[in-house]
Write a structure and sequence with these properties.
668 residues, mainly beta, Beta-galactosidase, Chain A, domain 5, TIM Barrel, 3 domains, seven-stranded antiparallel β-sheet, globular
Length: 668
């Protein structure tokens, strides 16, 4: 894909003139400053000619102390050890573009950058590119096409992140590289992080003065996903680990030249919640190529969560049509764009398959091209078309991978609008490449994609706007069999996984019960925390296709459902308003001339004064949904009131234990 033209503020500088690019006696190769001057990032060699290192300062304070950048190639060894600098190019970019959906409708990419060409001791040319934004730093390494090197195999990457000082870390771990990335978060001092354990991303560090940094990656394409690891006790450096190729030893990534790694990214803010506003990951991905005007963001049902279909009456054409007709009518009444067709009674998927089950596929008779005769799919599709409701399918990735183009062509003929693709549970190079092929093939047939059992986003939705969301998080589905997805976890997700991009969380649980009465239920699951907590998640989490996952009977005539039915799924502007990492968070998002506000807390009931400065000039009518009682004893009860406000005022909020606040602000 062709990159947009960039304004050049420094031409290529020959090795003999490197001082002009910032090379100093201390071994600096180049120092790049953010456009506003608040952040400095440097590349340097050690005085003894040792490894290449990078460092980051913000407002004069170290964030990342000198940390190694290195990659080892099969048959070549280390690229950084003994490397010499050939030239340096610096430039500034300031571009603004439109986004088809997201947490903002306009994206400003404003950064300073440098590309440094090295020659390794073995004679291999390679590059490091460094970009510095006002709210983050990113770097990547690349290998240009060169004589005798048409393909490279990476056997290891030794890049480190040496966090300065003694920050507190919010993080989650993985037992192995084969993972759905669904685990609880922990908060510990940096020195107490586990040793020789895979640490997932984003990881968030917070210093005592409130400064926060998130480490993650961007533009993961045809490469292995990256994890972090603390190598040993007494060493607080975080070293990268790449997801290995299945069935191969000693090779993590194989690429033709020229090639670039994903971006290694450090997002920065003066407060952890401000990271929610960050758009650096999107800036590091190319804009979409092609026409995506057919995309329609909107909410979707997901009947598997409430279990009514799977535990329903015997599966017959009449019973299945009646069930799906109920959902389709519900969607049509409430302007819910999509209804998901997933399964039938007996835990059987909608497609032909004799044995029950969803995760262990394909079976010998699995056929994702043929609908089960007892579901009467043509009748369901015709009725949905009459009602103006889009139909989406659930499908396991493995049988889909065996019939990718054929299946998508068939689904397009049937009028299907999108798919949930599930159970990939890997982010090695092969799986990352397959997911890109899936998105490209889906776009040809005007299908949107939702990846479950997947790794975190890396901003690639800018390049592939038909990628509506990813899971990659322990979410409300866990309440069907455990008590793990409680309000404290949801607050942690807002400060970590949400930073990577749209997060699918099985929203819409309307059966809230007191904490001490909760029990996991597969049919009509209960949720922990208050109903208001559930409402607010449609604002706190950005997601162009959030679920309305409960049964229609859970919503009809219920207080608060008007907010769920009306809240947008894509936004013009996003603001962090208030909160403390791990404690509570309040986010405001603008859609058109309306502002929506959502706030959630952990198990601590609290009073909070929420400033309304985001509203701007004028007077607004506020409609506020809040917890009726602070003790959480009646968690499904709401208090709703309307009154006039201006941006000079604050909203005084009483959060119940596990509670929330939701509001709509309409200009008068």
């Amino acid at each position: 894909m062709t990159r947009p033209a960039l304004s050049l503020i420094g031409s290529l500088i020959a090795a003999c003139g490197l001082a002009a690019a910032g090379l100093a006696n201390n071994g600096d190769i180049v120092t790049v400053q953010s456009p506003d001057g608040s952040i400095n990032a440097a590349l340097r060699h050690a005085d003894d000619g040792g490894p290449l290192r990078f460092s980051i300062e913000r407002n004069g304070h170290p964030i990342i102390e000198p940390s190694t950048i290195d990659v080892r190639l099969v048959g070549v060894g280390s690229l950084a050890a003994g490397a010499t600098v050939q030239n340096v190019a610096q430039r500034e970019v300031d571009e603004t573009s439109d986004l088809p959906w997201g947490k903002t409708s306009r994206l400003r990419d404003h950064h300073e950058s440098a590309v440094v060409r090295f020659k390794s001791k073995s004679g291999v040319a390679w590059d490091v590119e460094l970009r510095v934004f006002n709210d983050g730093v990113a770097f990547r390494y690349g290998i240009p096409e060169q004589k005798g090197l048409r393909e490279v195999s990476i056997e290891d990457e030794n890049t480190e992140f040496r966090l300065a000082g003694e920050p507190t870390i919010l993080y989650t771990t993985c037992d192995s590289y084969t993972t759905s990335h669904e685990a609880l978060y922990e908060r510990k001092p940096l020195a107490d992080l586990p040793v020789k354990t895979l640490i997932d991303k984003p990881l968030v560090a917070q210093w005592p003065d409130g400064t926060a940094a998130a480490i993650t990656e961007a533009r993961l394409r045809d490469f292995a996903g990256m994890y972090l690891e603390r190598p040993e006790t007494g060493n607080s450096a975080l070293r990268t680990r790449l997801s290995p190729l299945p069935g191969k030893t000693g090779v993590l990534v194989t690429r033709g030249t020229p090639c670039w790694s994903p971006w290694r990214v450090v997002l920065l803010a003066d407060k952890a919640g401000r990271l929610i506003e960050n758009n650096v990951l999107l800036c590091l991905n190319e804009p979409a190529d092609g026409d995506f005007s057919w995309l329609v963001p909107g909410k979707t049902t997901f009947h598997w969560w409430n279990g009514r279909v799977e535990h329903g009456p015997p599966s017959t054409p009449e019973s299945n049509f009646a069930t799906h007709k109920k959902y389709i009518d519900f969607c049509a009444r409430n302007n819910i764009e999509y209804h998901s067709v997933i399964s039938v009674a007996g835990n059987l998927p909608w497609f032909v398959q004799g044995d029950p089950g969803f995760g262990d596929l394909p079976h010998a008779d699995t056929d994702i091209l043929v609908a089960r005769p007892d579901i009467d799919l043509p009748r369901i599709l015709e009725y949905a078309k009459e009602k103006g409701v889009g139909i989406r399918f659930w499908v396991h990735w493995k049988p889909l991978s065996e019939h990718l183009d054929e299946a998508f062509a068939q689904y397009e003929r049937w009028g299907i609008r999108g798919l949930m693709v599930d159970f990939m549970d890997r982010d090695d190079q092969e799986m990352v490449e397959w997911q890109e092929r899936c998105l490209q093939a889906a776009a040809k047939h005007k299908l949107h994609i939702q990846f479950h059992g997947s790794y975190k986003p890396t901003g690639e939705q800018r390049t592939f706007p038909n990628l509506f969301n990813r899971e990659g998080v322990l979410n409300l589905e866990y309440l069907k069999w455990s008590d793990l997805c409680a309000p404290p976890h949801t607050v942690n997700v807002a400060y970590t996984r949400l930073l990577a991009g749209p997060v699918d969380y099985h929203l819409g649980g309307f059966r809230a019960v007191p904490r001490d009465e909760f029990q996991p239920r597969d049919l009509e699951p209960w949720v922990m925390g208050t109903r208001c907590n559930q409402l607010t998640l449609y604002v706190v989490f950005d997601n162009p296709m959030p679920m309305v996952a409960d049964d229609p009977s859970a919503y009809d005539g219920q207080p608060g459902f008007d907010f769920v039915a009306d809240v947008p799924t894509t936004w013009d502007e996003t603001r962090f308003v208030a909160g403390e990492m791990g404690e509570y968070v309040v986010v405001a998002r603008r859609g058109g001339n309306l502002w929506y506000l959502g706030g959630i807390t952990n198990w601590d009931a609290r009073q909070a004064s929420v400033p309304l400065t985001f509203l701007g000039a004028g007077e607004f009518e506020a409609t506020v949904y809040s917890d009726k009682a602070a003790d959480g004893k009646n968690p499904s009860e709401l208090h709703k009131e309307s009154f006039d406000v201006t941006s000079k005022e604050s909203l005084e909020v009483a959060f119940a234990s596990g509670g929330g606040v939701a509001a709509v602000f309409k200009p008068k």
